[in-house]
Amino acid sequence: MIITQPVTSRAVSAGTTPASTGGTTALGKEDFLKLLITQLRYQDPLDPLDQNEFLSQTAQFTQLETLQNIGKQLEDLKALSSGASLTQAAGLLGKTASVSRGETAFDGVNAVALPFTLSDSAATVDIDVLDAQGNRLRRLSAGATPAGSSAAVWDGTDDAGYGLVAGTYGYRVSVTGVAGAPAPLAIVAQGTITGLQTNGARLLYRMGTMVVRSEDIVEVQ
């Protein structure tokens, strides 16, 4: 009598990998295929692998391979997109940019002015005071503002009315133009773009000591 010893296997669900133990790597598609072949080779002739289970494991292998291929294609696409963005952004180096974002120093006591300039025409203006991470702390509404130089006054409190500590804060100006007409540009600062940097997936521009986002740039000359 020939005694066979069945090999116990664990099916791998599509989109998952077994946890690593003892420093072993995750089960890949080649390991999955080897395991399936080994299972077939050592199956008990008197109790062969159920056809439905075999088809299920084969389908799982196909799904695993498809998901891995999709992941590789997404990584390639991400790298290509990132390279194109950097190439485009590099073309702005050395150019003068007008931005809708600025910085102000707050001493913890006295109110500060947040200057800005509206080009061409009047508009309704909102000013957001920001922390170092770009999160909004306070929204000021300047209402209808004529074209030219203006300033909003910030008393150093957040939206809840609590006083903030002394430090350097950012602020961003947004405008709403007259219905049917293009909104004017809200310019807070101008300067030369001197460098690039990344913050996760976000591309940032250095303009002197200030770091601005691409959406903060309203005009490039």
Which terms summarize this structure?
single chain; 221 residues; three-stranded antiparallel sheet; disordered N terminus
Q: Distance between the terminal alpha carbons, to the nearest Å? A: 89 Å
Tally the beta strands.
13
Please state the average pLDDT score.
76
Number of domains: 2
Largest sheet: 4 strands, antiparallel
Strand content: 25-35%
Number of helices: 2
Q: Which structural category do the helix and sheet elements fall into?
A: alpha+beta
Sheet with the most strands: spatial strand order: 2-7-4-5
Q: Categorize the overall geometry.
A: elongated
* CATH topology grouping of the largest domain: Immunoglobulin-like
- Spans with pLDDT under 50 lasting ≥5 residues? 1-24
Rounded to an integer in angstroms, the radius of gyration calculated over CA atoms is 30 Å
Kindly provide the name of the CATH class of the largest domain: Mainly Beta
CATH architecture descriptor of the largest domain: Sandwich
